[in-house]
Amino acid sequence: MINRRRNFRTRSQKNNYRSRNGSIGSHNTVNLHNNGNMSFKRNGSTNNLHNVEKTMLKFQQLAKDAQSNGDPVLAQNYLQHADHYLRRYNELNEKKLDKIENKPTDTISQNKN
Is the pLDDT of residue 86 over 70? Predict the structure, then answer.
Protein backbone atom coordinates (compact mmCIF):
# COMPACT_ATOMS: atom_id res chain seq x y z
CA MET A 1 0.00 0.00 0.00
CA ILE A 2 1.35 3.40 -0.95
CA ASN A 3 1.15 6.11 1.68
CA ARG A 4 -0.16 8.84 -0.53
CA ARG A 5 -1.86 11.95 0.68
CA ARG A 6 -5.39 12.24 -0.58
CA ASN A 7 -6.33 15.65 -1.85
CA PHE A 8 -9.80 16.43 -0.60
CA ARG A 9 -11.40 19.82 -0.93
CA THR A 10 -12.10 20.84 2.62
CA ARG A 11 -14.26 23.84 1.72
CA SER A 12 -16.64 24.82 -1.01
CA GLN A 13 -15.47 26.74 -4.04
CA LYS A 14 -16.15 30.23 -2.78
CA ASN A 15 -15.08 33.13 -4.98
CA ASN A 16 -13.56 30.74 -7.52
CA TYR A 17 -10.79 29.85 -5.09
CA ARG A 18 -7.77 28.28 -6.72
CA SER A 19 -4.32 27.46 -5.46
CA ARG A 20 -1.67 29.93 -6.64
CA ASN A 21 0.95 27.35 -7.54
CA GLY A 22 -1.35 25.28 -9.75
CA SER A 23 0.59 22.02 -9.43
CA ILE A 24 -1.06 19.04 -7.82
CA GLY A 25 1.90 17.52 -5.98
CA SER A 26 3.20 20.69 -4.40
CA HIS A 27 0.98 20.62 -1.32
CA ASN A 28 3.78 19.21 0.82
CA THR A 29 6.34 21.85 -0.17
CA VAL A 30 7.13 24.86 1.97
CA ASN A 31 6.82 28.29 0.38
CA LEU A 32 10.26 29.86 0.73
CA HIS A 33 9.51 32.78 -1.55
CA ASN A 34 7.36 34.91 0.73
CA ASN A 35 8.33 38.40 -0.32
CA GLY A 36 5.93 40.33 1.91
CA ASN A 37 3.72 41.92 -0.74
CA MET A 38 1.33 39.05 -1.29
CA SER A 39 -1.41 40.86 0.61
CA PHE A 40 -1.52 43.70 -1.92
CA LYS A 41 -4.07 42.65 -4.48
CA ARG A 42 -5.20 44.95 -7.22
CA ASN A 43 -8.95 45.11 -6.87
CA GLY A 44 -9.55 48.75 -7.74
CA SER A 45 -7.76 50.00 -4.66
CA THR A 46 -5.39 52.05 -6.87
CA ASN A 47 -8.16 54.64 -7.22
CA ASN A 48 -8.37 55.31 -3.49
CA LEU A 49 -5.89 57.98 -2.40
CA HIS A 50 -5.54 56.58 1.11
CA ASN A 51 -4.89 53.01 -0.09
CA VAL A 52 -2.32 54.17 -2.63
CA GLU A 53 -0.46 56.16 0.02
CA LYS A 54 -0.55 53.21 2.42
CA THR A 55 0.75 50.84 -0.27
CA MET A 56 3.53 53.26 -1.22
CA LEU A 57 4.66 53.53 2.41
CA LYS A 58 4.53 49.74 2.76
CA PHE A 59 6.82 49.24 -0.24
CA GLN A 60 9.21 51.89 1.07
CA GLN A 61 9.40 50.02 4.37
CA LEU A 62 9.91 46.71 2.58
CA ALA A 63 12.77 48.31 0.62
CA LYS A 64 14.40 49.51 3.85
CA ASP A 65 14.05 46.05 5.37
CA ALA A 66 15.52 44.36 2.28
CA GLN A 67 18.43 46.82 2.25
CA SER A 68 19.17 46.19 5.93
CA ASN A 69 19.07 42.43 5.24
CA GLY A 70 21.72 42.87 2.57
CA ASP A 71 19.58 42.31 -0.52
CA PRO A 72 20.07 45.36 -2.79
CA VAL A 73 18.25 43.77 -5.75
CA LEU A 74 15.08 43.17 -3.76
CA ALA A 75 15.39 46.64 -2.21
CA GLN A 76 15.57 48.18 -5.69
CA ASN A 77 12.55 46.16 -6.76
CA TYR A 78 10.53 47.45 -3.81
CA LEU A 79 11.69 51.02 -4.48
CA GLN A 80 10.46 50.73 -8.06
CA HIS A 81 7.07 49.60 -6.79
CA ALA A 82 7.02 52.47 -4.28
CA ASP A 83 7.91 54.89 -7.08
CA HIS A 84 4.97 53.60 -9.13
CA TYR A 85 2.58 54.19 -6.22
CA LEU A 86 4.11 57.63 -5.62
CA ARG A 87 3.34 58.58 -9.23
CA ARG A 88 -0.20 57.21 -8.83
CA TYR A 89 -0.60 59.09 -5.53
CA ASN A 90 0.49 62.36 -7.17
CA GLU A 91 -1.88 61.76 -10.06
CA LEU A 92 -4.85 61.13 -7.77
CA ASN A 93 -3.93 64.11 -5.60
CA GLU A 94 -3.78 66.34 -8.68
CA LYS A 95 -7.22 65.13 -9.81
CA LYS A 96 -8.60 65.84 -6.36
CA LEU A 97 -7.18 69.37 -6.36
CA ASP A 98 -8.57 69.99 -9.86
CA LYS A 99 -12.03 68.95 -8.66
CA ILE A 100 -11.78 71.32 -5.70
CA GLU A 101 -10.60 74.20 -7.89
CA ASN A 102 -13.27 73.66 -10.55
CA LYS A 103 -16.18 73.21 -8.17
CA PRO A 104 -16.47 76.85 -6.93
CA THR A 105 -16.21 78.23 -10.47
CA ASP A 106 -19.08 76.00 -11.61
CA THR A 107 -21.34 77.21 -8.79
CA ILE A 108 -20.46 80.85 -9.49
CA SER A 109 -21.26 80.48 -13.20
CA GLN A 110 -24.59 78.80 -12.32
CA ASN A 111 -25.54 81.63 -9.96
CA LYS A 112 -24.95 84.24 -12.66
CA ASN A 113 -27.46 82.56 -15.00
Answer: yes
Nearest-angstrom CA–CA distance, 110 and 72:
57
**pLDDT value of residue 59:** 97
Report the alpha-carbon distance of residue 105 to residue 113 in Å, rounded.
13
Q: What is the pLDDT of residue 90?
A: 95
Contact between 92 and 56 under an 8 Å Cβ cutoff? The reply is no
Q: Are 34 and 42 in contact (CB under 8 A)?
A: no
Element (DSSP H or E) covering residue 83: helix 72-112
- Which residue from 44, 74, 72, 42 is spatially nearest to 59, judged by alpha carbons? 74
In this predicted structure, the answer to whether residue 24 has a pLDDT above a threshold of 60 is: no
HSE-up (13 A, CA, CB side) for residue 51: 10
* Alpha-carbon span 37 to 39, nearest angstrom: 5
In contact, 50 and 83? CB cutoff 8 Å? no
Please indicate whether residue 3 or residue 13 has the higher confidence score (pLDDT).
3
